Amino acid sequence: MAGTAAPGAGKSRVHAVSFAEAPAALAAVRRLRAEGFEVHDVHTPFPVHGLDEALGLRPSRLGRMTFAGGVLGAAAAFGFQVWTHAVDWPLVIGGKTPLALPAQVPVSFELTVLFAALFTVFGLLARRRLFPRIDGRPADQPHPRVTDDRFVVLVVERDAGFAPARFGELVTALGAVERAESWRAL
User: Fold this and answer.
1) For 84-104, what is the mean pLDDT?
2) Are 28 and 176 in contact (CB under 8 A)?
3) How far apart are CA 26 and CA 48, in angstroms?
């Protein structure tokens, strides 16, 4: 397993438990959390419905970034058009006022969508730290087949209260395909 290193400052022992099917991994997350184990993360090849709730994650704040980008885009488009049509180059065309709202809707709509999309993408990249690595190393995956057909649940052992025997029995009862341990900085 990648990320194997000697124990040291800031590192925790992580148990990577892999499952062959999504329902088994989802049931394992629910059961492990109910038994008091700390599930740090779950790596899946595709989104699994209900996994966010099973992990106890809060709703995403990405929608707020999208809304902020949309508002900024609409304000920028409308403001630029008002400045252009009413202040910088006021023209009366067809007897209409320079601030005719119907003429400004298409450009404002397009910039609203553009800014909302850009804020969403860059907000996601920044929040999840998904920018390219400078050192050229590939991303650290808990299992080589996690992008293909494995569902890997990462359980953290932080203190002496972790019961390895009970954990091993529970993982076996849950139908784990494979189990590995390593030290990782979390």
Assistant:
1) 83
2) yes
3) 8
